[in-house]
Amino acid sequence: MDSFEYRNNRLHCENVLLSEVAKEFGTPTYVYSRDAIELAYLEYANALVGRDDDMVCFAIKANSNLAVLDILARLGAGFDVVSQGELDRVLKAGGRADRVVFSGVSKQSREIRRALEVGIHCFNIESEAELERIDAVAGQMGMIAPISFRVNPNVDAGTHPYISTGLKENKFGVAIDDAERIYLRAKSLSNVEITGMDCHIGSQLTELAPFMDALDKLLILVDQLQAQDITIKHLDLGGGLGVCYTDEVPPKPGDYIAAVLEKIGDRDLNLVFEPGRSIVANAGVLITEVEYLKHNESKNFAIVDAAMNDMLRPALYSAYLDILPTEINEDNTAHSYDIVGPVCETGDFLGKDRTLSIEAGDILAVCSSGAYGFTMSSNYNTRTRAAEVMIDDNQMYEIRARETFEDLIKGEKLLPKG
Predict the structure, then answer these.
(1) Does residue 15 carry a pLDDT above 90?
(2) 193 with 53, same domain?
């Protein structure tokens, strides 16, 4: 997290003190570094210089704030969406529809129509039934839908089972053994045009081997389809490249892309990548205030104002996120704490067994929170969702205001009296 560093025992985001962000906007608050987002995206884009038709499509399920999307759109990013809401966010932020790939296992007819109306780059189709629906909707509109099939290569990504997507027991994609038959069916339809092949085997991969194993299988299929007079124009290799949460050393995007280019050889294939986590995870932190310290006979707790509704990943995945004080006080005694929130669930924790020298009123930073933090947050226990702030050098910008109680009850109605 190079954009976050201690200077004189005080944690900065770029040139802003995180403690000052807390004073200005309160807690809990998500804080993002513009510089970190841009540098992470450019690691992908720079590795594809000279390949003008390739695309780096940010997976906006990782972080869908309009300001984040705007930063990436200005750099020329494409976008990977899985809902009409995400598509409309891209358009609102200034992203180009023709640089959008539409993924997801349950596209509704209205979503398909909307995507066709605005002219997206491609649908990543995940089932035979979806193929028939897209063909039917496109036919009703008198249009031709550009399509790619998400092929499930049955490759074990070696990651958490909740974020593994490339095994035959996962809900995603069409089985590689069925793919040729399904492509032939698509070729026979009047309102779809085959443009590509898609694959995404999971998230937080820290080795290249699973990616390369999947790619080997896809290239065999590409060649088989060419023999059937079906030309694959682009290969979408999804996302999944891991980040460093503790001591992981994932491959660099440039090394990954170089390995892909070597393997595809002289095949005339454009490439699409769908990174999410690797662009924004370490570009953000969640700051939270210590409300109470509670010392039991067998356990010490630091009770903070952020909770599992603000950051779900530790409770959902047992994800490890580093937790740091925004100001180091060397006079305090260090203890091992479970960092827990106010939600009425035992699973409401942000970290366990963390050695910290803290006291009530201190501000902590939950690191690597830029991906799947705010986007997975909720209003459980009628808690308002956190504010979001973007740091740009020495400036801080509120890019999403903290919710109010009135926001939470908007649309709710009491029953008539009597």
Answers:
(1) yes
(2) yes
